[in-house]
Amino acid sequence: MQVNDGWVPQTPVEGVLHAFTRIGRRIKSKQPGDTIDHSAHVVMFMLKCSGPVRLSDLAARVEIDASTASRHVRALEKAGLIRRSADPDDGRAFRVELTERGEKEFEAASKRRQELLTRAMDGWDTSDIATFEKLMTRFADGVSSIADERAGLDAASQQTIEQNVEN
Q: How crowded is residue 111: how many other Cβ atoms within 10 Å of its Cβ?
């Protein structure tokens, strides 16, 4: 049963939004064998890509607030998937990074999601998969660009407000 039984998108853009909602819900759900949830997977993905980072950098890169990042770090540290270490640039701060076990858990979870996508594209021509990847990447770049632009505008707007309050 689908959440949208009986509903038909009225425009192609509605259809795209609806498809992303359906896909996102399934990708975010725990896959058989998962020991971590989607939000932890996102944190671990960022650490896999960037290596050790400060908590504030983790929060900024994953686009969550510091208290949420801290909660994720505590849970992942308790599970033995990440560790804290002193920041060599600032002895008062710490950095977080994946442990060997964390890297293995992340790789296994990623593999399960890749298998899901591979099965979903079973029977597709190789050229269709390449075209789909190219279009999805182009679309993701466009969405990211707009979101980054908006974030910059929001930061600039906040700065303007603060300057006006000071004057």
A: 12
Inform me whether the pLDDT recorded for 104 exceeds 60: yes
| Mean of pLDDT values over 3-14 | 79
The class level of CATH for 39-120 reads mainly alpha
Higher pLDDT, 155 or 89: 89
| 39 vs 154, more confident | 39
Count of Cβ atoms closer than 10 Å to residue 24 Cβ: 11
Could you tell me if 113 and 28 are in contact, meaning their C-beta atoms sit under 8 angstroms apart?
A: no
Task: Determine the distance from the C-alpha atom of residue 17 to the mean position of all C-alpha atoms in its chain, rounded to a whole number.
Answer: 18
| End-to-end Cα separation, the chain, in angstroms | 58
Break the chain into its structural domains and give their ranges.
1-30, 39-120, 125-167
Q: Which residues contact 47 (CB under 8 A, 6 or more apart)?
A: 53, 58, 82, 96, 97, 98, 102
d(CA 106, CA 35): 10
CA distance 140 to 17: 13
